[in-house]
Amino acid sequence: MPLASYQTSVPVVVDDAKCIADKGCTVCVDVCPLDVLRISDMTKKAYMAYDECWYCMPCEADCPTGAVTVNIPYLLR
Amino acid sequence: MALDQIVDGLSEVSCDVLVIGGGTAGPMAALKAKLKNPKANVVLLEKANVKRSGAISMGMDGLNNAVIPGYATPEQYTKEITIANDGIVDQKAVYKYAQNCYKIIEELDSFGIRFLKNENGDYAVKKVHHIGTYVLPMPNGETVKKALYRQLRRARILISNRYMATRLLKSADGRIAGAVSVNTRTAEMLVIKAKAVILCMGAAGRLGLPTSGYMFGTYENAANSGDGYAMAYHAGAALANLECFQINPLIKDYNGPACAYVAGPFGAYTANNEGSRFIECDYWSGQMMLEFYNELLSGKGPVFLQLKHLHPDTISEIESTLHKVERPTRGLFQQGRGVDYRSESIEMHISEIGFCSGHSASGVFVDDNARTTVPGLYAAGDMASVPHNYMLGAFTNGSVAGIDAMDFADSHDFAEFDAADVAMERERVMAPTRREDGIPPNQIEYKTRRLVNDYLQPPKVTRKYELGMRRLAEAREDMQDRMIARNAHELLRALEVQSIMDCADMAAHASLYREESRWGLYHWRTDFPEKDNENWFCHTLLSKRDGKMTSEKRAVEPYVVPISDDEKDLYDKQRIRASA
């Protein structure tokens, strides 16, 4: 069966101007219990690659520059 | 190499004691094992990252079951948990916990975790349970994981993050020999030989589907997909009382605790839409959950946690805990809905079902030394069968497991496993990556969990269960023959679905076996609506025998602390009676 992807607005938002992943930081990617954050090949900044979030907060709490914001996933907002 | 790209590889390492799961029980087990024999190799394997994994990823507001001299005795606590769990308790393990937990509190204190004290310097313990007083707030509860991590580094525990254990290995004579694991970002496989293995892999929290429809909006940390239950099952270990589901009263949609254990001691309470109390006690028991369920359906719902009658300063104090630890996004959620606790009550609902001994009694069977029925295999925390264990139980029994497992490792050599078992497991793990075309794991998972909600959620109806098992068998066929994983991350989810499917089958099988109703809502069977002590005052043990799922009865061990006839039904009297 062919696959299609469908749109989803993700709860974790990264402020590219503050994110220092391009300097080698991987803190948010490292701590996420669900392993849903990645560093973008294009922008070299962190982003939410998989919409599988427990809105638990380690990524936001541990980010050294305050670049990460955790929102409540839309379906349960 | 980019993250998530699949790498085909297999390597092997060995250690004396392997601890799987770095949440709460696991770090303590690893620490105690290493302190018992500092020369031994202890490996702590974690699917996520030990720094922020497990149920206490963002800390915890307090201890729910602290047995502190001057406030409670081990005898009283053992009695309370026996009654709360409808009598089906091997008291020896509960009593041992109750005796040991104070020492663990002192140890946690020495790690830098603080516990609330009153002006005299005594612990400020609060009452939430029906009978006794055991709730102790933790003023810096958000630092728990950091404090544990420091201890692990100091003791030189070998930590392997982002490795998911998939199956246990045994020798021909049935002794534990190690585990197979897979890297969740490369799909490379790692075999870990070990003399003893401790499973601390948390609850089966991704079993039912939350009513929001968001698959990861579960009560439990969504990483807790029941892998430990599935691994223990396939290794032939017995699992106890799986029909005693975990179901909790939670903030509707947010699906986290409100939390009555925090707010209750300040005077908050659960109320119906008329503003009236309807339950005697907010402690999470099956009997309480049944009254909660009945109220929701009675027309007197919705059900709320009521705080607005409290002084604004008190509410601020409650907020500072609720919005800081355990589930800190509670504040953001309420803010988004415009709910201020000073003027509005918190709408509550019932969680999805799961397995979790931490709150109920469904777990891998362990004795008072945390030993499972497989020699050399231990379990602790939410997935082990000591009931109503919570965080302090995970620490305390993790400690017991670590010490006993190191004793075992010190007196045994490595057991030999069959290389064919590893080859077979490698085939099973990698199968979804070898298919060109098929169904992605998220669709199989959604369908499985939707079936769990439709057919297995209480009230349990035999005919519904039979239909549900047929539908689950069809989904299992799709999972085995058609599931695809296109990168390592999808493979992680594909492996988790297989644990979820196993747990769904076990939930159904165990529930049909016990032909009575017990534990309030947790095991309410409409075809057998009464409690039947004559035939069912026993544990049920589920295990895999000759490849088939089987259940059997196991007698409750003679009580250490006797329960008198007028005490044993105390938790059945949860509903507040209308005054004449």
Number of strands of chain A: 4
Q: Which structural class best describes the helix and strand composition of chain A?
A: alpha+beta
Strand content of chain B: 15-25%
Using the alpha-carbon principal axes, give the shape of chain B.
globular
Shape field of chain A: globular
Note poorly predicted spans of chain A.
none
Task: Round the mean pLDDT of chain A to the nearest integer and report it.
Answer: 96
Fraction of residues in H or I helices of chain A: 10-25%
Which protein chains make the most extensive interface, counting residues with beta carbons within 8 Å of the other chain's beta carbons?
A: A-B, 29 and 43 residues
How many DSSP H or I helices of chain B? 15
Low-pLDDT parts of chain B are none
Order of helices and strands of chain A: EHEEHE
Strand content of chain A: 15-25%
Radius of gyration of chain A: 13 Å
Helix content of chain B: 25-40%
**Structural class of the helices, strands and pairings of chain B?**
alpha+beta
* Count of runs of 4 or more consecutive helical residues of chain A: 2
Q: If you compute it from the alpha carbons, what radius of gyration of chain B comes out, rounded to the nearest whole angstrom?
A: 23 Å
Fold and architecture overview:
The complex is a heterodimer of chains A (77) and B (580). With 77 residues, chain A is α+β, with helices and mostly antiparallel strands. Chain A is 13% helix and 16% strand. Chain A is built from two helices and four strands. A two-stranded antiparallel ribbon of chain A has the order 1-4. In chain A, strands 2-3 form a two-stranded antiparallel ribbon. The longest helix of chain A has 5 residues, at 27-31. In chain B, α1 links the parallel β1 and β2 (42-45). With 580 residues, chain B is an alpha+beta fold. Chain B is 34% helix and 15% strand. The model of chain B has no long low-confidence stretch (mean pLDDT 95). In chain B, the strands form four sheets. In chain B, strands 1, 2, 5, 6, 7, 8 and 15 form a seven-stranded mixed beta sheet that branches. Chain B starts with 9 loop residues before the first strand and ends in a 25-residue tail after the last strand. Chain B has 15 helices and 17 strands. Chain B has helices at 25-36, 74-84, 91-110, 144-154, 227-234, 260-263, 286-297, 312-322, 330-336, 390-410, 419-434, 441-456, 462-482, 488-513, 533-536; strands at residues 10-20, 42-45, 62-63, 136-137, 158-160, 163-170, 176-183, 189-199, 239-240, 249-251, 269-271, 303-306, 346-350, 363-364, 377-379, 538-545, 548-555. The A-B interface holds A 1, 3, 30-35, 38-39, 41, 49-50, 52-58, 61-62, 70-73, 75-77 and B 2-4, 48-49, 51-54, 57-58, 161-162, 184-185, 210, 212-218, 221-223, 253-255, 327-329, 332-333, 336-337, 437-440, 489, 492-493.
